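Justification of computing resources. Each target in the renewal requires a structure prediction run like the one illustrated here; the chain below, 488 residues long, is used simply to show the kind of job we budget for.
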Amino acid sequence: MKTYAKYILIFIAGIIFTSCSENWLDVNTDPNKPSDVTPELVLPAAEISLVSQITVRYNIAGGMWAQFWTQNPTSNQYKQFDAYDINATTLDAEWMELYSGTLKELQQIKKVSKENQEWRMYLIAAALQAYTFQYLADLYDKIPYTEALKADEGIIAPKYDDASVVYDSIIQDLDFALSKDLSKFTSPVNGDFIFNGNAQMWVKFANTLKLRIYLRQWKVRSAVAQAGIQKLFNENAAFLTEDAKIDVFQDEKGKGNPLYESDRRELNTKQNIRASQTFISFLTSANDTDERIGYYFEKGTSGQYLGNPQGDFNKNITADEANKISLARILATDPAYLFSAAESYFLQAEAKLRLNYSIAEVKDLYDQGVLAAFARFGLNGSRYIQTGGKYEFNNAEPLKSIITQKWAALAGINGMEAYIEHLRTGIPKRSSVPVTDGSYIPGEFTHPIQSVLPVGQYPRRLIFPDSERKSNKNTPAEVKVTVPTWWQ
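Resulting structure tokens:
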């Protein structure tokens, strides 16, 4: 686990488990024996492990591929991401932590909770595990699943499963968890930083995740997707209407938001992540600047919000010139998000659009999504969705409206999810001209200037990690980063 994650885990243990943290951190406890595991003490480690991976380097890579951010021209930390220079070491450490930390800890919770029939804890662990497995399956296409996390059974080289198998299996696990009686589990869970053990909120989280899983495969298994979504609607499934986030961070070393700790506190420069001109052009289009711009970015030294053309980091400019480009706004006290309420509304809007519900119902959910995206910053977004407003719902291109606003809402908090949705839908479009061209349409993706891939090619998957290839003989042959995953 990375240094910042260790700091945060120790900090969290100190907040919640002052009297029992010694037991929680006891290295003599055998993690493979369920009797030695107390789920409430393992859960915070699993939750922090998860957000410490997906909100840092996965988020940075995705944030650059989704063209919210670009590498500062006078520093070097993330050039690999911005240039599409993806290899077997890219995000290797994150893969290892998700399997050896996050997923392993969640599996321990599931085992003990199932034995004790503590179905609320089982649901929490199953939901977070499904979230993690889907994340990995979307990025790698094949991952260890059915034989994963079974080292205690002697399986140290698990086979790889197709992503479609992973999808079907995690839906089954979620359905199993959701089928249990949760009515007696009403006391708070101190180790749950997301919903404090509120079982009904975790039901909503699981349903929202199922909706995302079904929509992801709409193009390749439309019958499965349609049946799954229709079943959710027929059962009046409840979806998230508030953020699923961890909001416990402080502005002290080792206690801050993981992205802040990694990018701003641990590195020798705080200037790595600058605004992409792609996103700035979108936010400032139509002679109406989106009020969220001040929450996404800091003004440059020119006193304006300025972006840099995507991937234009090798130009010979001074630090003073670079500082005119807006810096990404990242705070130590920022929450870490798994789902935002806005994303939930946009998923529901798309689902009803796909199933031919009335356009009025689709528009209502879209409007709620935009309002929730602004409300996350304490802003009222109602003027943007009114007739003639900057983000008025487009009846002629409803999917474009939904996915574009989901893209904007995911900026800063889950760049990889925004990029995955672009791969799935082709929204925002990819421009045939550079951002500096007079015919450029604000918000369309441009080819990074320093890309190692030819124009028209871009990452569609990650390469199987080097550490996995060295330790697992069942790792599949390498697949080029430009090859689409199954749902593309």
